[in-house]
Write a structure and sequence with these properties.
The chain has no helices and eleven strands. The strands form two sheets. Strands 2, 4, 5, 6, 9, 10 and 11 form a seven-stranded mixed beta sheet that branches. With 122 residues, it is an all-beta fold. The chain is globular and about 40 Å long.
């Protein structure tokens, strides 16, 4: 069974950091594009960052530039989202998704995790 499982969310103060993990089972993430998305209460889901199968990075939203990074650990079959200098507006449920064609084109993401809550508040 193909599965993505996110972890690492939680409550953090403004200016703090979190690292989210997206662990895969039943598939080898190295050959997939993996994207991180988020959905805040009352808002539509938006893309955050994506790493293609060739290692290229796509940034979907300007507000995280310079603060968030995406990386892979192929040995652990896991993709990470490192989030620094967190702001209250980063509060959302964060999801990872995989695209077997290896691109970061949003409509191609067919496998999704269940999400992990990130809350930035003092």
């Amino acid at each position: 069974q193909l599965q993505l499982v996110e972890s690492g969310g939680g409550l953090v103060q403004p200016g703090g950091s979190l690292r989210l993990s997206c662990a895969a089972s039943g598939l080898t993430l190295e050959s997939y594009a993996v994207g991180w998305f988020r959905q805040a209460p009352g808002k539509e889901r938006e893309g955050v960052l994506c790493i293609s199968s060739s290692g290229g990075i796509t940034n979907y939203v300007d507000s995280v530039k310079g603060r968030f990074t995406i990386s892979r650990d192929n040995a652990k079959n896991t993709v990470y989202l490192q989030m620094n200098s967190l702001k209250p507006e980063d509060t959302a449920v964060y999801y990872c998704a995989a695209d077997e064609l290896g691109s970061c084109w949003v409509p191609l993401f067919g496998l999704w995790g269940q999400g992990t809550q990130v809350t930035v508040s003092s």
